[in-house]
DNA sequence: CTCTTTAGGCTTGTTAACAATTTACACCTT
DNA sequence: AAGGTGTAAATTGTTAACAAGCCTAAAGAG
């Protein structure tokens, strides 16, 4: 059971990932408040959080604007940092993965499969992210998830693997199976080659 | 002129860095609101932001608690990510450093010197961070500062170089002089060896 | 005696009104 | 006509009241 603030944040984030707002656009608190049928408070909170996550640029007394997505070299650099975090957490927490944790990962994988079948990029990107989060949590990496999420967010805006849905799914299946089989090195290699 | 929200956020962050709140402690909105003489709104905003920055842990309907500082292996790992970002930004933007940018760095360096003379760890940590920010900005790395800041924040809670004030200052002088002399490789090496 | 229930207080979540700031544009001066 | 000035509209910032959720402890049932 989430708060309104969280629901609103998720909705706006989804729209940003889906590309409904063009880069540079100024978002108005009242406009979104009216649209979602809530007061400006939760909208403000969401703007603040999404600014921290890197989606929006915030200026005092002037509101927020949609940030430009990462491209080229910058994107690759951020992606490398993201992978480093995943590798570090999985390497460190591999032995403490529980059956319950593996089931959570399996569930996320199933959701990713469904998302891939719909072909909606925004949904796939979201499910992709959720899958990785489930792994990080299974490895007890909660302490670093926030940093990981920020890095990941910046890249969601350019989730550019249109059409490769089956390949995306397969790559994640590989990661899951390696985890399930307790083959650490294979899992790390699979994560390392998982390109987003 | 900053907003109340920003002032409050800075004040609470300073106290956290100074170690005035022990890890695990639950912070109350009303208590801080009364202490700073403002309403709960800006306090809430500050809590939200500081949670994103990694200082506080947020739970819906239950408020925030002070997070435990990073230690050992985790701290070294985060530190390595932080250095990678600095190296990337400086490497990429070295040639676009302006005279004005260098002056900003020099100003930050002077503030760091003053902070070191006071011997107050919280002040030194803050000035240290500001110095690095000035460099990143001079190199046009605004796009990545937010991620950098989040990584850096987690480490501020264990700024453990008590007594080495003169050494801290000297290391930063080295970085500055390399920038001023346009010696890129020397600057990168100096940043890489700047241990926090 | 132990466990469950429930009432009360305490804390956070949300709202709507009010204050402060920015922006746009008509107006005046030169 | 160019440029500055003032005013009104729009937008964000802050506040305080109200709503909703959580926690504790006392009361009651078994």
Describe this structure in words.
The structure is a homodimer of 196-residue chains. Chain A is mainly alpha-helical and 196 residues long. The first copy, chain A, folds into two domains: 4-66, Orthogonal Bundle (Arc Repressor Mutant, subunit A), CATH 1.10.10.10; 72-192, Up-down Bundle (Four Helix Bundle (Hemerythrin (Met), subunit A)), CATH 1.20.120.530. Helices cover 70% and strands 5% of the residues of chain A. Chain A has nine helices and three strands, in the order αβααββαααααα. The first copy, chain A, has a three-stranded antiparallel beta sheet. The mean pLDDT of chain A is 92. The structure holds a DNA duplex (30 and 30 nucleotides).
- How does CATH name the architecture of the largest domain in chain A? Up-down Bundle
As a percent range, the share of helical residues of chain A equals 55-70%
Strand order of the largest sheet of chain A: 1-3-2
Q: What are the low-pLDDT stretches of chain A, counting only 5+ consecutive residues below 50?
A: none
Oligomeric organization of the protein chains = homodimer
Kindly estimate the percentage of residues of chain A that lie in beta strands according to DSSP: 5-15%
**Superfamily at the CATH H level of the largest domain in chain A?**
GntR ligand-binding domain-like
Number of strands of chain A: 3
Cα distance spanning the termini of chain A = 30 Å
Number of domains of chain A: 2
CATH fold description of the largest domain in chain A: Four Helix Bundle (Hemerythrin (Met), subunit A)
Task: Give the overall shape of chain A.
Answer: elongated
